[in-house]
Design a protein that fits this description.
The chain is an alpha+beta fold and 161 residues long. The two termini are 32 Å apart. A hairpin with a 5-residue loop joins β2 and β3. The protein has two domains: 74 residues, Alpha-Beta Plaits, CATH 3.30.70; 75 residues, 2-Layer Sandwich (Alpha-Beta Plaits).
Length: 161
């Protein structure tokens, strides 16, 4: 089963390396990793996507909590949470197909962030399925390059009762 783990860590040299080393040293794969500073510049948030059964994820969580620079570990799987990815997709364009590409961009609420005589670079944000869907629709035009951020995630706020 796929798990999304949110980790708050001290924003210090070597923390990312130690966490990645924990995963690789135990034979766990990181499918997606995103790290950035939080509102507090001394703290960073890591979002890691990995796969494993509940026993493996529990082991990962316990190992992460033992690391000195880790503040909090939260497995978001099974909870309500928001997730997004960002993708930049460079696609071939010419005078004949520009309108069709722009139509796809509009449907997915994406935007063109760079234009050249032979290509558009498109920025799209959304869940993994949205990124996959727009990629498949743009593929026939010829995708020159694609770059993705990996998943970021945040627990939803409790609903008012």
């Amino acid at each position: 089963m796929r798990h999304t783990i949110s980790i708050s860590v001290m924003n210090e040299f070597g923390v990312l390396s130690r966490i990645a080393g924990l995963f690789s040293g135990r034979g766990f794969n990181i499918e997606s990793l995103c790290v950035a500073e939080t509102i507090d510049p001394r703290v960073s948030r890591m979002t890691i996507v990995t796969s494993g059964d509940d026993r493996i994820i529990e082991q990962i969580t316990k190992q992460l909590n033992k690391l000195v620079n880790v503040i909090k570990v939260h497995d978001l799987t099974g909870e309500e949470y928001l997730e997004r990815e960002l993708a930049l997709i460079k696609v071939n364009c010419n005078a004949d197909n520009r309108a069709e590409v722009l139509s796809i961009v509009d449907i997915f609420r994406a935007k063109v962030v760079d234009v050249s005589p032979r290509s558009y670079t498109i920025e799209v944000t959304g869940d993994e399925e949205k990124i996959a869907a727009i990629t498949e629709l743009l593929r026939p035009f010829g995708i020159k390059e694609i770059v993705r951020t990996g998943r970021i995630a945040m627990a939803r706020s409790p609903k008012a009762k």
